[in-house]
Amino acid sequence: MNALTRDDVIGILKKLKQLFNINKDYLVELDGKMGDGDLGLTMSKAFAAAYDELMGTEETDIGKILMKAGMLMAKAAPSTMGTLMATGFMRGGKAISGKIQISTADLADFFQAFVAGIMERGKAKPGEKTIIDSLKPAADTLAQLREEDATEALQKALLAAEGGLESTKNMVAQHGRIAYYKEKSKGEKDPGATAGVILMKGFIL
Questions:
Q1: How far is the C-alpha of 186 from the C-alpha of 173, rounded, in Å?
Q2: CA dihedral in degrees (199, 202, 203, 204; nearest 10)?
Q3: DSSP state, 98?
Q4: Residue 182 pLDDT exceeds 60
């Protein structure tokens, strides 16, 4: 696949709704070990709201669709992670505003802006056991593969995200309730980074 169409993007939102619903209980369990335990509910609610509202949209500007998805997420799930995910979609959508098809290069721009938005809003950086640790490797992989086929590039980005998630086992959390556990937070995969991997899976149609 060389480019994603508007219909592909709506399909991605549908798949994300399904994936976060399927993984809702897993994310609740993972987040409940040291966090608030609401991550699965937050993500499921956010992506359901985005898809349900946009499934019949007549908008052709993919950037605007993704920005709108972020706005809907922010309204439906105003928690920390809901706000961060919403910020990512709004920033990423803005970066590719005006596009009626998106190439691998556009996807790279979307995810670079997505990650930058989350880092700025959450005041987080790589290595602090957050969603950044799975999404930044994915975004950087797409940036390196700008000229490749979109499907192949996204599959490689997913592998990078999965590697980043695995690396969070050795990190000490710096943000959120899990940060209270300091060294005890080692050994567990970060729930936010897990959500980041699920997000990347949703982009592979």
A1: 8
A2: 130
A3: T
A4: no
Cα–Cα dist 76/26, whole Å: 21
Distances (CA, A) of 96 to 125, 133, 187, 199: 24, 23, 38, 18
The DSSP code sequence of 136-188 is HHHHHHHHHTTTS-HHHHHHHHHHHHHHHHHHGGGPPP-SSGGGGGGGGGTTS
With tokens 């605007």, the residue in question is 64
Nearest to 112 by CA among 133, 137, 131: 137
> What mean pLDDT comes out for the span 190-194?
94
Considering just the CA atoms, what is the radius of gyration of the chain in Å?
A: 16
pLDDT digits (tens, 9 = 90+) for 22-52: 999 999 999 888 677 899 999 999 999 999 9
Q: Pull the structure tokens for residue 110.
A: 């979307």
d(CA 149, CA 203): 14
Other Cβ atoms less than 10 A from the Cβ of 184: the count is 12
The structural domains of the chain, ordered by start, are 3-202 (1.25.40.340)
Distance of CA 128 to the CA centre of its chain: 17
Instruction: Tell me if 81 sits within 8 A of 43, measured CB to CB.
Output: yes
